Amino acid sequence: MDETRQSPEQILKQIEKEEQTLNRGHLKIFFGYAAGVGKTYAMLKAAHSAKRRGIDVVAGYIEPHVRPQTSALVNGLECIPNLVSEYNGITLSEFNLDAALARHPQLILVDELAHTNAPVCRHTKRYQDIEELLNAGIDVYTTVNVQHIESLNDTVASITGIMVHERIPDSVFDNASQVKLVDIEPQELIERLQAGKVYSPTQAERATENFFTVENLTALREIALRRCADRVNLLTEAVRIKSHSDYHTDEHILVCLSSSPSNAKIIRTAARMANAFKGAFTALFVETPDYQVMPEEDVKRLRSNMRLAEQLGAKIETVYGEDVSYQIAEFARLSGVSKIVIGRSSATRKSIFSKPTLTEKLIARAPNLDVHIIPDTGGKNTAYRAKKARKKNGIVFSVSDLLKSVAILILASCIGMLFRQLGFAEANIITVYVLGVLVTSVVTRHRVYSLISSIVSVLVFNFFFTDPQFTLQAYDQGYPVTFLIMFLAALLTSSLAVKLKEHAKQSAKAAYRTKVLFDTNQLLQQAKDKNEIVSATANQLIKLLGKDIVFYLTEGETLGEPHIFTVSGDKTDKEITGTKEEAVAEWVLKNNKHAGATTETLSNAKCLYLAVRVNSRVYGVVGIYIGDEPLDAFEKSILLSILGECALSLENEKNAREKEEAAILAKNEQLRANLLRAISHDLRTPLTSISGNASNLISNGNSFDEATKNQLYTDIYDDSMWLINLVENLLSVTRIEEGRLNLHITEDLVDDVITEALHHVNRKSVEHHITVRHKEDYLLAKMDAKLMVQVVINIVDNAIKYTPKGSNILIKTWKQGDKAVISISDDGDGIPDEMKERVFDMFYSGANKIADSRRSLGLGLSLCRSIVNAHGGKITVSDNTPHGTVFTITLPAGEVEIHE
Q1: Does the structure show a pLDDT above 80 at 19?
Q2: Of the residues 535, 641, 803, 876, which has the maximum number of CB atoms within 10 A of its CB?
């Protein structure tokens, strides 16, 4: 039982996934094996049935048909107007996505799932429009044929001889809520075609000759039936996996990426294998030095193949190296790959004397791996296009490299002449020239200089050091062999040096990118707030990519102001901001997907926009100005890792902020609870006393003598003053806790503050001896006089309350350096040492009893400390001699100006 029990993390993920599913619309695909089987007709019939059940149904886009039965079914359905645009002089009608989102029906019909949109549309493909509708919670009915499924494209093309360019990822088909197969017999379909129920007569005749044959239709029908069966198997497997935790096999399929036109077919085959084996799927690109000079056409094809592999569920990986077979085998060994899929052109030798093929090298280096060879029909000129380009554009003239090569050759010749004078053998001189060629290959930027240096070194050695000297002739029969060996040794050593140098460059590049990722992690850990996190992330992205960055933080459900970071340091780059660019960023925030340049969504944008997210929570959007150089696969991988680190840091910052706010809220709630608890008890006594005395005066006032009346009036006054002081303290405490204590600092005489305070102290002060002594005639302090009056009142009232009648209370003031000091002492019983540490804490009243038996709230001294600290001063408590307590207040002193 315990082995199959899910962890809390798994349960949480499952709950989040179920919540997303509940909020997401449902997709129903009407699936056929060819045009004319009745997909649109079946979809419209189902729409009318849904409408009769009370569902809000809208026709978003219905492909125009020549079939009257189909066209008639559109009647009675609300239709969203098409988006009409002009493109190359042609008027195009497209599905209006924004109008559909604004209408927001329960169910919408969108025909032709695999359709490619016009440039004016937001997305390149219609299935992306439908994905946005589903995310908005709208149910969708749509149609598609079997030849438009990505993984089946090659299989269908081999049957029909036609390569279909409008395709949808398999995941769209497999993740649909329902797939309804619309099926009729092939012969019946041909009869409908001939009757003009599918195409016009001219189109029907051409289709019957080329595509609509019984053999083709039967094969397509079989593929469609099998694909539906495969989808049922996937659904069954998904249910089994859900009930048995994470399930996977040990199979790991690796497909090799290249710029070959046939590489797409190999990728699709590998994807089908990965699905069949229920294993991991990885697409690997080995970047060699040839990639830097690859023709633009091949680069675009390579990127297209990478996007295809990504669509089919592959994880894209990039490695660097000259030896492709070694890099593949090493990656396969480290990643636990079980099967490698390559094309047939990589497995074919041109002649018996040709170098071993990639397949032969792979088998030799990884004998335990299964290597699957897929038929390659791409043509002979596609396998090594990059190498041909390198040879064509290889010679790069550089004055500095030429001068270096000549200087090294002259230096080698001088050393050779020195060796000859010293009687060294010719072998030593040959070694010097070989060393010179090796040095040339290291210090120059292109291998052509080392090749030329190898040839010239042989000629120079022949000219200066063989008999007859200073000619290019050689009498000794062994010299030609010597020259050949010298040339080959120089050429091989220089080639190895060039390869090592290029490998070192690639390694340094990869190490730098990896270091940027590690540095990002450390910088984000040190960041203190959101702005520092954004700044650290953007600067690291500039280091990695060398491109301008714009960063939008989220503010609730919207984007905040853009933070611009440029390579040049200019913070006002308007090219990467603007209404259109911000609209793309808003779309990314709303849909939690990539968009902008190099994507199929809003591709006219100047920046590539990516969500900074943790699962479905988006914390910001990053825009990267692409320009003329798109990101390569390795850069994109590091980029996503950095954004993931940034998202985690923003989430941690948010959690820490919320935790701090929760702690403050809890503290405030505790404060309110303590205040209510204290007030509810302590207000009862004076209020009862006031109401009782007032009731006696009203009811029996005429029967009381003057002394009794005066005593009742006095009690009412005392209780009222106690309540007033309590309310004043409560208001002050509230202002301090909420950060609303505004100080009005002026330079006032301390003597005036004390005099004013003594006018408002407890009426029972007449029962004590209060003395004031000033060592300075004019002592000024920088303070808010009104608040400091309250401080003195609270401390003197405490002395009156907690000391017996007849006690002495002494108030002294003096100047000590740049501080004004106020000391208030009494000769009462004093405060025990264990209570001194807590005497300024809020709601702490100690164990002392007050003469009138009222319990103190413990607010007075806490308020005094808060006010004094706000002034930049200090308040302390100490013992008086021989007994009693001393409260000492220090405040910033003011300067006395004397005008004569």
Answers
A1: no
A2: 803
d(CA 624, CA 359): 39
Q: Whole-model pTM?
A: 0.62
Pairing, β 90-94 against β 83-87: antiparallel
Strands 808-816 and 819-826: antiparallel
Strand, coil or helix: 493: helix
Contact criterion met (CB below 8 Å) for 80 and 48: no
Residue 733: both structure tokens together? 């405490």
Q: Cβ distance 279 to 338 under 8 Å?
A: yes
Closest CA to 114 of 178, 29, 36: 29
If we measure between CA atoms, which residue out of 442, 453, 445, 470 comes closest to residue 412?
453
Exposure of 20 in the CB half-sphere (CA atoms within 13 A): 12
Closest CA to 141 of 24, 25, 28, 38: 28
CA 761 remoteness from chain centre:
62
- Nearest CA to 291 out of 387, 382, 381 is that of 387
Measured CA distances, 110 to 82, 195, 862 (Å): 11, 27, 71
- The average pLDDT across 27-31 equals 95
The first and second tokens of residue 523, run together, are: 């910088």
End-to-end CA distance of the chain: 97
Are residues 316 and 285 in contact, defined by beta-carbon separation less than 8 angstroms? yes
Amino acid at the residue 116: T
User: What is the spatial distance between Cα 793 and Cα 757, in angstroms, rounded to a whole number?
Assistant: 5
Phi, psi dihedral angles at 875 (to 5 degrees): -125, 135
What pLDDT, in 10s, does the model give residues 285-339? 988 877 777 888 888 888 888 888 988 888 888 888 778 888 898 888 888 888 9
The secondary structure of 680-700 as a DSSP string is HHHTHHHHHHHHHHHHHHHHH
Q: How far is CA 167 from the centre of its chain?
A: 30
- CA-CA distance, 433 to 745, in Å (whole number)? 87
Residue 795 CB neighbour total at 10 angstroms = 25
- Token reading at 834: 């264990």
What CA–CA distance (Å, rounded) separates 35 from 620?
A: 44
Token pair listed for 281: 């799927």
Which has the closest alpha carbon to 159: 205, 98, 224, 114? 224
Length of the chain: 900
Q: Which H helix or E strand runs over 300?
A: helix 296-311
Tell me what percent of the chain is helix, strand and coil, each rounded to the nearest 5: 55, 15, 30
CA distance 322 to 326: 9
Contact assessment for residue 33 and residue 221, using Cβ atoms and an 8 Å cutoff = yes
pLDDT of 384 > 50? The answer is no
State whether residue 167 is helix, strand or coil.
coil
| Angstrom distance (rounded) from CA 778 to CA 785 | 16
Give 837's contacts (C-beta < 8 A, 6+ positions apart): none
Strands 780-783 and 769-774: unpaired
CA–CA distance, 789 with 116 (Å, rounded to integer) = 80
* Single-letter code of the amino acid located at 489: A
Q: In this structure, are strands 607-614 and 595-596 parallel, antiparallel, or unpaired?
A: antiparallel
Question: Above 70 in pLDDT, residue 200?
Answer: no
Any idea what DSSP says for residue 78? Answer: E
Mutual orientation of helices 153-160 and 214-243 as an angle, nearest 10°?
A: 170
